[in-house]
Amino acid sequence: MLPSLRIAQVGGVVLATLLLAACGKPPAVEEPVRAVKLITVGEGRYQAGYEYAADVRARVESRLGFRVAGKIVRRAVEPGQRVQAGQLLAQLDARDYQLAADAARAQVTAATTQRDLAAADLKRYQSLRDQGFISGAEIERRSATLKAAQATLDQARAQLSSQGNQAAYTHLLADANGVVTGIDAEVGQVVAAGTPVVRVAQDGPRDAVFSVPEDRVAAMRLGQQATVHAWASDEQWSGTVREVAAAADPVTRTYAVKLALAGAAPPLGATVTVVPQQSGAQGAEVIKLPTSALWQQGQGSAVWVYDPASSTVRAQAVQVAGADGNDAVIAAGLTPGMRVVATGVHVLNPGQKVTVYQPKYGPAPAASAADASKSIADNAAAPAAPGSR
User: Fold this and answer.
1) How far is the first Cα of the chain from the last one, in angstroms, to the nearest whole number?
2) Domains of the chain
C-alpha cells in the first residue's frame, strides 16, 4: 500500500503544477518588423478632377420608316453599309396601292368624259340661243353643269396624284449620305406607317456622348471646353459641350452630355475618354498621394508617417479634397518632405517598427508623390524583403 500512496501523492503534485502553469499569462508575442515602401510627400499640378468614358456618334442619326403601312418584301442594305441620298433601303408590297392608283386613273377617265360631254352640250345650246330657240336660263344651267364636271375632273386628278404618291412611298429611300447603323425590321414583317425600319447616321459633324452623375451635372456648362483621348491610340481631339440633358435618365439617374468634336473626328462607335476643363484648381500646386497610402481612421482618412529616428510609423489624419486620376488630392494634414507608407497600410499599428523596402531591381524609390504610382507599379512583382513575414 505504501508505494501506491507515494505514487498518488507525486501525481497530485504534478497535476497541481500543471494547473498553476495553465493559469499563468502567456509571454507577449513581439510584432514582426515589416518592410514598407515609402514615398516622399511633394506638390504636383492638379490636372483634371474627372474623366468620363464616351462613345462617338453622328450629330444626326435618323430612324427612317415608311410613310405608309404594309408588308416588307425587300431589304436592300446591311448594317455598316454606306448609302447615298436617294438609294433604296427597303420596299413594301405595293400591289394594293397600285390597284388604288389604277382605280383613281379610271375615275379621271370617267370625269374627263363627263367634262367633255358637258362642254359639248354647252356649245350646242349656245348655238341654239344665238338662233333664238332657247332662253338664257338654259345656257346658265349648261354652264353650271360644265363647271361641276370640271371640278369632278380636278378632284379625280388630285386623287390619282395622291394614290400615285402612296405607291411611291412603298420604296424607302435614304434622304442623305451616311452609314447604316441598325436594322429595326426584317423582310416579312408588317409595319405601320412611321415604324422605324433602318437607322442611318448622316455624314457630317460628330459628337462624343457621355453620362455624368447628378452631383457633377452642375459643373457642365454649354460652351465648356474638353479634351478627348482615344483609348486605342495616342490621338486626341478638342471638343465643346453643346448639350446637357435637362432630365436624368429614369434607369441610371445620370445626365447625358453631348460634346461637339472639332476637326477630323474618330470613327463612329469609337470609345474615347473625355476630360472636361475645370476652372479654378486646374494647374494649381497640390499634394497628391496614391490611394493605396490611405486607410480609414474613424470617420476620416489617415496615412502612416515614417519616423527615421526610431524606424517606427505613426498615424496621421488627413483631409481628402478629391481625386486627380488615380491619385487622391490631400487638402490638409501633410507637408512636403514627409515620408509616408505607400502600400500595406492595413497591417501596420501605431509605433510599430518597420524597415524601408529596397528593391533589388528596378528604378530608385520615387522622389515625390507624382512619381509614386509608377514606382509602386514597377515594384509590385518584386519579392518581399527578408525581414517581412
Assistant:
1) 57
2) 34-49+284-379 (2.40.420.20), 52-58+202-276 (2.40.30.170), 66-93+170-198 (2.40.50.100), 95-168 (1.10.287)
